[in-house]
Write a structure and sequence with these properties.
Keywords: NADP, Oxidoreductase. This is NADPH:quinone reductase. InterPro entries: ADH-like_C (IPR013149), ADH-like_N (IPR013154), ER (IPR020843), GroES-like_sf (IPR011032), NAD(P)-bd_dom_sf (IPR036291), QOR-like (IPR047618), Quin_OxRdtase/zeta-crystal_CS (IPR002364). One of its GO terms (molecular function) is mRNA 3'-UTR AU-rich region binding. The longest helix is centred in the middle third of the chain and has 19 residues. It is built from 10 helices and 16 strands. Strands 3, 5, 6, 7, 8, 15 and 16 form a 7-stranded mixed sheet that branches. Strands 11-10-9-12-13-14 form a 6-stranded parallel sheet, sandwiched between helices. It has a 3-stranded antiparallel sheet with strand order 2-1-4, with no helix packed on it. The protein folds into 2 domains: 174 residues, Quinone Oxidoreductase, Chain A, domain 1, CATH 3.90.180.10; 128 residues, Rossmann fold (3-Layer(aba) Sandwich), CATH 3.40.50.720. Helix 2 crosses helix 3 and helix 2 crosses helix 9. With 326 residues, it is an alpha/beta fold.
Length: 326
Amino acid sequence: MAKVVKFYATGGPEVLRFEDVEVGEPGPGEVRVRHAAVGLNFADTYFRGGTYTVPLPSGIGNEAAGVVEAIGAGVTDLAVGDRVTYTGFINTLGAYSTERLISAALLIKLPEAIACETAAAMTMRGLSAAYLVRRIYPFKAGETVLLHAAAGGVGMIVSQWAKLLGLTVIGTVSTDAKAEVARAHGCDHTINYSHEDVAKRVRELTNGVGVSVVFDSVGKVTFMSSLDSLKRRGLMVCVGTASGTIPPFDPQILARKGSLYLTRPGLADYIADPAEKAELVDELFGHVAAGRIRIEIKQRYDLQDAVQAHRDLESRKTTGSSIFVI
């Protein structure tokens, strides 16, 4: 029997259940994958808590890596024994499992240079970083960005990639220890929002101009300071709501603060086109395989410890990437 984590009602980490499940054989266009590692992402808490609604009961998790064990009819580009990884949204929900059935079209073959654990720690985070730095805005060398949660899994990849593009990175963190982590991964400056005024400090660091782009994964508590950190006609990228959803606001505020732009992107829309997905995957895997971007797994959990893993994630005890090891 395979093992799976499910939830039957939305709520806190305690709603997660570790259960046995019969996986069965793959149907047409499907494969059965035996997981080696599963990604733990903050987005998982949005499903569990009800921010993202799905029919219940439901599996959880959108990212994992492993080995193809069986192939359904019509699958021609994968073979038993292939190492694969995947990420997505609703169409990949259920990654918290030891094995599963999944559409072959969603899978990405892993190059020899990238281990399954590394893939589980970087597929969602890495592709999120990829579209943020390569698709959201036409960055030019010398521009400055503000990156919230700079010591997190996505933040550490974004900051390293930004340096490859010649950008100056200002990262926010909650502790001095996380500031050290952020600086070690490309941040030129760090701001500890626990005791510093973010917008004021950004203005000081940019000689009063502000930054071209803010990547804000925190949401409710940072929204206004993020807007106040932007230069005229700057771009606010709302990529998450770790502190809660952003309350309704009058769009006129964007005009008053300098004709600002705002977007709330989602990874699924940037990997929906197979050709664009392949481009982002190739660039990401190339940087990681060459050592230009380091993927650091800071926390490892057993799948049966999903409740504790979610508690650690939401209490901001984690840094970098976290995975479940199968």
